[in-house]
Design brief:
With about 675 residues, the chain is of the alpha/beta class. It contains 20 helices and 30 strands. A 7-stranded mixed sheet has the order 5-4-17-16-18-19-20, sandwiched between helices. Strands 7-6-8-11-12 form a 5-stranded parallel sheet, sandwiched between helices. The longest helix has 17 residues.
């Protein structure tokens, strides 16, 4: 049975506001100097899609009323609600209390002990899941592998012993810089098995980005590969690691190298070893170490509004529970599902929804190494058809690319195995949502449009597919334990369809526990705007049904193709070029990537600007940070618009970059002629 639009019988009953289900605490004290200002109202989305009766029948949560009751209990009585959910985990030692909260520090499942690897692997070995596929993998060149839970357990134990052979112990940091191969998941789970913390670095980042992260977390071991495949080319991962370690500034004592592509690489004697050779010295018996519920699990770096990336710290029990719960309720994963999250393990989506969440639930998770358009534009659709994928989770950036490539790449494949679709990484525009619904989902699959962040660890605002009717472009309603609100600068909830700041007013299990090595930055970044509330850095609005619509970043962090980039990080890269005196980086709307990177650059005296220099600066940023940060445009400016205090007015640069008419207060500008010159140059272009 297909989903129906609002005009259909199935969707005539529109969802009521979910706001009534949530208790509303007293408003916080506002920071001095801030004022409340109502935003302009925006038109409401009129289309509503109810889940089909067939989907509802087999769902864990089958009505909006049931969702509301559960959500209300999760806020009112978290001890009972999360205690019931936590009983599904395998504990080494029972916890005494569900939550201790003293802002900004949360402790979940106080006194309890468990092991993440044990929960993802060992507990599934006693029954029929022992021989069930845990990971299905396809390499970009076409190789295929399947690892059952028993086989994955064996590989994780063997590699955990390799880590112990290299003197990795509880609390140590291990950097993982690998392609999308099963060994990346093996390395992550091996770290958790022995109590080491991993920090996975996206394989598209450069040597300098690796070095910064290795130094920040003080890693002693790096796990990498000779290379990986991307659009038919080899990504030189080992060379990037070698370049990062030049100069001896880090404390890295071992580099473990997986042979993936087979190209010749430098192996530093006394430091570098081959993965396959190390396995010859170990056996497959490695007991999992009992870890405190709040023991650090991993550090994952994300860009911030300063040049230095933030090492987001997640801990053990709360993170694992939230990942498992969201896979259970949001993806509605079943024993027979073949689930595919297309994210790289270098991002939090790969952590939570490719590795930890699905494996904790005992699901089958598919992993693909390469690009969606290699060797042709139908690679994703062929994979779905070949493996009978039932649940598909990807980014709006990819969906917009699929639309651009044309329907014919999709329509020649049988996608009838799909029963649920998801989106992640950025807000999805209604046009892309509808295309996804009609072309990929055959107008029958619910779409879970999920809003969350590296910092939140898991889904925060998302439809529950059998219970919550959806609207194109809306993330709908908060997940269990999430008390979300849209407020003005004083912390007062704004009216319906008015834009404001998205805040979370209560702690949740998978919340970040800090920024590695920088407690003050943690407090200032997330908890200082509204006392006692987490400020997400995103803007949002709520419609008359209580549905959340995410507007996007309101700080100086860009969302490029679902990846967060700090403007300061890109600016630092530009200024490191000998020709650049100053730079300012802003985002502009981009049909494919969500946001494009536009750089305004002032060159040093005596330097001549040219197209060749602009191209050189693009290549320079790519080299310093990585391909994802490559500027879409470099604009040269004689000067940048600044206030008299020296602050660059990026608000005006965003308007110029987007071709908008200049608006807003400019009275604080030091020189209004600077803006006029930039606007005139933009008009000429």
């Amino acid at each position: 049975m297909s989903q129906k639009s609002k005009s259909s019988k199935a969707a005539k009953s529109k969802p009521k506001s979910a706001a009534k289900a949530a208790a509303k605490p007293a408003k916080p004290a506002a920071k001095a100097g801030k004022s409340a200002k109502a935003a302009k109202k925006v038109p409401a989305e009129s289309r509503v899609f109810a889940p089909s009766a067939e989907f509802v029948k087999s769902s864990r949560i089958q009505s909006l009323d049931q969702y509301r009751r559960m959500h209300a209990q999760s806020l009112k009585d978290p001890e009972k609600f999360f205690g019931r959910e936590a009983a599904e985990l395998q504990w080494r030692k029972p916890y005494r209390r569900v939550l201790d909260w003293k802002c900004p520090d949360a402790k979940w499942f106080v006194g309890g002990q468990l092991n993440v690897s044990e929960n993802c692997l060992d507990r599934h070995l006693a029954g029929p899941r022992r021989n069930k596929a845990a990971l299905i993998w396809e390499g970009e060149p076409g190789e295929k592998r399947v690892l059952t839970y028993q086989q994955l357990h064996r590989e994780v134990c063997r590699f955990a012993n390799v880590l112990k052979r290299h003197k990795v112990k509880k609390g140590d940091r291990v950097v993982i810089y690998m392609p999308m191969v099963p060994e990346a998941a093996v390395a992550m789970l091996a770290c958790t098995r022995i109590g080491a913390m991993h920090s996975v670095i996206f394989g598209g980042f450069s040597a300098e980005s690796i070095k910064d992260r290795v130094l920040d977390c003080d890693a002693a071991v790096i796990i990498t590969s000779d290379g990986g495949y991307r659009r038919g080319a080899v990504v030189p991962l080992k060379k990037n690691v070698d370049d990062a370690l030049k100069g001896g500034e880090t404390k890295v004592r071992s580099v473990i190298v997986l042979k993936r592509t087979g190209q010749e690489v430098h192996m530093e004697e006394g430091r570098d070893v081959w993965w396959h050779r190390e396995l010859e010295y170990v056996d497959a018996v490695c007991p999992a170490v009992a870890m405190d519920s709040e023991a650090p699990l991993f550090i994952l770096y994300t860009s911030g509004s300063t040049g230095k990336p933030k090492g987001i710290l997640h801990t053990t029990a709360g993170y694992l529970l939230h990942a498992q719960m969201t896979c259970k309720y949001v993806f509605d994963l079943r024993e027979e599902d073949v689930y595919w999250c297309t994210a790289d393990v270098g991002w939090v989506t790969g952590h939570s929804y490719l590795v930890y969440g699905p494996l904790a639930l005992g699901a089958t998770s598919l992993m693909y190494e390469g690009a969606p358009n290699w060797p042709e534009n139908d690679r994703f659709w062929r994979i779905i058809e070949d493996y009978g994928v039932t649940v598909f989770y990807t980014a709006p950036t990819a969906i917009r690319a699929f639309m651009k490539w044309g329907d014919e790449w999709l329509t020649k494949h049988d996608l009838s195995s799909l029963r649920l679709l998801g989106t992640v990484g950025e807000p999805i525009n209604p046009e892309a949502w509808m295309w996804y619904h009609r072309l990929v989902g055959g107008s029958r699959c619910p779409i879970v449009d999920t809003w969350w962040q590296t910092e939140t660890g898991g889904h925060m605002i998302t439809p529950i597919p059998g219970a919550v009717p959806t609207k194109p472009g809306s993330a709908t309603l908060p997940f269990f334990g999430v008390d979300a609100a849209v407020v003005d600068d004083l912390g007062k909830e704004v009216g319906k369809d008015e834009q404001g700041k998205l805040v979370i007013r209560k702690p949740w299990p998978s919340m970040l526990r800090g920024i590695w090595g920088d407690k003050d930055r943690y407090q200032k970044t997330y908890w200082s705007d509204f006392k006692g509330w987490y400020f997400a850095g995103d803007g949002a609005r709520r419609d008359k049904d209580g549905y959340f619509w995410i507007i996007g970043r309101i700080d100086d962090v860009l969302n490029v193709a679902g990846h967060r980039l700090g403007t300061a990080e890109v600016e630092s890269a530009l200024v490191s070029h000998p020709a650049v005196a100053e730079s300012a980086v802003v985002g502009r709307p981009d049909e494919l990537k969500g946001q494009g990177v536009v750089c305004f650059v002032t060159v040093k005296e005596g330097v001549k600007t040219s197209k060749e220099l602009a191209d050189e600066l693009k290549r320079h940023v790519r080299k310093v940070i990585g391909p994802v940060a490559t500027p879409d445009e470099v604009r040269f400016a004689a000067a940048l618009p600044k206030t008299r205090s020296g602050k660059i007015m990026r608000r005006l640069l965003k308007q110029i970059a987007s071709g908008e008419a200049l608006k807003g207060d400019t009275t604080t500008l030091e020189d209004v002629n600077v803006v006029a010159a930039l606007a005139a140059a933009s008009a000429e272009d």
